[in-house]
Here is the input.
Amino acid sequence: MYVCICNAITDKQIRLAASRGATTVMDLTNELGVAAGCGSCRETAAEILSEHEHRNRRFEPVVFTPASA
Ligand code: FES
Here is the structure.
């Protein structure tokens, strides 16, 4: 699906950029040109980045230690 109409950038391209390290819309602007025109794609691009981060977040193991008596 096209996210940035002005620059013909798709959600797949944004996810690929995120997998390469893009974490902000500014990163996407620099790499792909997202939001460099009218800016109406900014919010959707940010949501895709957030979704990507959420899906790829590493969970730290939780270690429970018994309370001392
Ligand atoms: S739709 Fe992305 S800059 Fe216009």
